[in-house]
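Field: COMPLEX_INPUT
Field: COMPONENT_COUNT = two
Field: RESIDUE_TOTAL = 1099
Field: MODE = joint
Values follow.
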Amino acid sequence: MINKIKQRYFSDTNLYLLITAAVLLIMLASAWYAMQQRQQSFTARLSHLHQLQLNQLAQLNYDARQQVMLSAQLVAADQQIKQLLLSAAASYRINDQETELGLLRAQALPLLNHYWQTLLPYGASQLHLHLAPDAYTFLRAHRPERHSDRLADVRPLVMQSLNSGESTVGIELGRHGLGQRAVVPVTDQQGKVQGAVEFGVDLQKAFLQVQAGLTDTGSDNSSAIISMALLVVPDITDVLNPELQQNWYQSEYWSTPASFSPLRYWLDSNALPQQLTEARQLQLSYDDRDYLVSLLPIPVWGENQPEAQLLSISWQDVTAQIYTQQKADNLIWLIWLAATLLLLALGLVLVSHLRRQAQHEVADQQALLRQSEQKLSALYQLSPLPILLNRFSDGAYIEANPAMEQLVGYTPEELKQLSYWDLTPERYAEAEQQQLKALTETGRYGPYIKQYRHKNGELIDIELNGVLFSDAQDEKFIWTIIKDISDIKRIEKLKDDFVSTVSHELRTPLTSIGGSLGLVLGGIGGELSPKAEKLLTIAHKNSQRLNILINDLLDIDKLTAGKLRFEAAPVFLPKLLQDAIEHNQPVATQHAITLNVVSCPPVHLLVDAARIQQVLTNLLSNAIKFSPANAEVSLAAEITDERVRISVQDQGPGISEVDQQRLFQRFSQLDQNTEQVKSGTGLGLAISREIVLQSGGEIGVSSCPGEGATFWLELPLYRAALPVNSPDAILVIEDDPDTAHLLCEFLRAEQYQADWVADSQAAWQKMAERKYAAITLDLKLQNENGADFFLRLRDNPATENLPVLVISAHIERGKLQLAALANAIDWIEKPVSPEILSLKLGQLLSQLPRQERNHRILHVEDDSDIVAIMRLQLENQCEYFAVATLSQARATLGKEHFDLILLDLGLPDGNGISLLTSISETQGNIPVVIFSAQDVSVENKLKVQAVFSKSRINTELLAKYLKRTLTELSR
Amino acid sequence: MTLQRVMHVEDDESIRAVAEIALTDVAGFTLLSCDSGQSALAQAEAFAPQLILLDVMMPQMDGLQTMAALLQLPSLKNTPVVFMTAKIQQSEKQRYLDVGAIGIIEKPFEPMELGDTLSELYQQHITS
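Field: COMPLEX_OUTPUT
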């Protein structure tokens, strides 16, 4: 996952781009920050001069305020002037006595003039005396001839002072220009304001001085020239004298000529702020030059414009400084860039170096990989086995080795053009699906035998084995190794022909040899001398032996080739063993050997009985042959898990471990120096082994030399397929414990529950405790005659209908005694066979439900003999119907209901299997039992209750099975 | 009716000789022994056998072909046929029975019992 992300997003190019971008970003950010800092310090340095200027302006303003206020107070404090002012105010109040006022003015003028002359060197521009209430100008010190006007009433400072009786001070802008003014009121003894002294200085000159001072400071450096101007904002120049108005901007008082142009330009382009509350600095440009501009707001009192603001503006051409700064900046940028590039280069070199190193390692690994790839590729190219690569999704041929070309005639290039089905005949489509399933489920397939179509059209037999794998892009492919098995197939056929021919050709002379010998020994050629007869007998026996050898050879050949059919069916194990003993009894007697069954659980095996009998016979005859006279050969069986282990134990010489290993190989008769010539072909155990293996079992031997040998085989156990509900309980009343044990075993094997009691008293007790479906009764009981017990059973209402199976050695006598009362009773003569017990008990039990309702069986069968036999077997148990064709069966099924269908397959108008659908449609889920000579596929076997082969089971057993099935149904 | 006239067709001379003794000296039949299918065809009608004993593997005409040809002859139409074969596959036995043979005798056979076996087969055949 991580590798994939790396591969997708971190290719070489991308990685380098990423590193470059990161370095550039970091360098840019740091450079930008540094430049910001540099710019700020540069601006600070420039503005220092301006700050100085502003400070001086502020100082000037402050000084002027102090000066004018002190001066005004000084004049107002003069008692003579005050008296004259009060008198003037009194005369002015009583109707404007001009004469009187003139006299008073004349007296006041020298007094006032004295102050005026004193103050003039300090920049005094005004010294006025005003009278209340309307600022009547009583006297102007600098122009005594002008008086008696009321021009001051529009000047807020004067009016404010007259009205409030307080001193006022401030900068005033009026028709006389800009001045710092102070007005001090003069009051009479009652404290009433009668007039005021106004004193003012001209500020313009003072500003000019400040500017000159600043300019001088930087005279040694042209770049330090600072221009300065005073502006009134808003523009209230219309209140000024026309003369002043005209010179407002041009006057040398208001601005220096050199600085006019930029200021005009800034004013016109609204680059300057309108209202300011504190000092401010700006950087502005004009005519491709850069200026640093400082602004200081000063409150002023304008005529009729009390809120006007005076802006002191100073500016300095800083183009040169900025240029220098920029030059330095550029240089710094350049260095920075160089440093960045260097760093970047270093970084990239380092990274690429590291990568190269890694790539070297990868290259080394790749070289190793290539080597191993070359090895594999050589293997692939030189492989005598064709190897093929197909794409999983569509089967397209991707690659093939030269051997493939030899096999199918197509070059690898031609192969790539082919579709999958060009090579594989279409008839393999279904088989291919199965292999494909195996491939997807397990990741591999094969061995899969099929054919390829050669380029020349011939079919080639091949065997395939393959694996599934995914490449890096998750696309799936199939590697297949192909084996050309056409030679094997050819040889197989040759061998088959050979075996068949040889067996014929060998038998033909053998027939006449054996035949001739048989005839001669039979006396056809006349009387034989004892010697001749002995010799001819040997010859005859050996010709027979030769024939057995040929038969064995053919057997083993067919077995190993899987050509022998096995028909597995449930086989009752005790019967199998008993039969084996019986078959081999003559030989055993001949060798004075005792055969016996030591133990045998009453279970069924699922095997081909004839084949297993062949194996048992082989093992037994071996055991007999190798045992000393009067020895014992025992047969035993036990259940292990899902299997039954049957063992044959002898008291022969035993078999060494080395011999045990090759015992089951063909022709491996042991070369023992026994005098007893053991007749045999050496194939018996090999054949047995094949049979057992193909029956799904195992075979083996355990032995120690000198201690006999035990051959064993394990075979699959058959579990009854019949549904077993709660099994019926059977009470066994039997005084012989051995017989009772056997009976119980038999019953349990048939899925009954069995309880045993030895006498009638215990039987009554048991019957009180538990409800039994039936009892088995021995007529000879310890405490009571069985017949008497039976009579008492029938007298008792609870047990009057209880089925009773009488098991006795003397049933004829018993039958005589009980004949009259024979309801629900049946008889078995000792010794008891499990089949009879099961059959009779089944019949007894099924008699009860029969009284309620008869089961209906439909038998579809065209053989009238079989129908007749089955009818005989079944008709007193159920209603038996038979039809001979499919069409009749369909018609009957459509009309009537049945409990069970017995079905033959080979019918005149088709296969009985085709009826299964109609049966389930019309009858629902009822048991279907197939009884036919035909084979039934596994798939169909699963659809029916049971399948019986006509060659394997007789009608009696079938009927027994059907009755049992019906009995199960009625429960 | 008991079996008396038997025709035996067998290409192997030795087997023919053994069978001849077995069927004449031992069993007491009247025997016509033929060494090929063709020779059997030529003599069959004249001999009028009650039962035909046929070897299966013979050159030129094999047992089945010989049987088919013989049963074409009008007078032999219902004559029972018994095959004698060295091949013992169950499927093959069934095949011969299917085409109408009444029995199969395996090689090597027991010459002292051959006649009895044929008589038995013949009796079974005519009673059914």
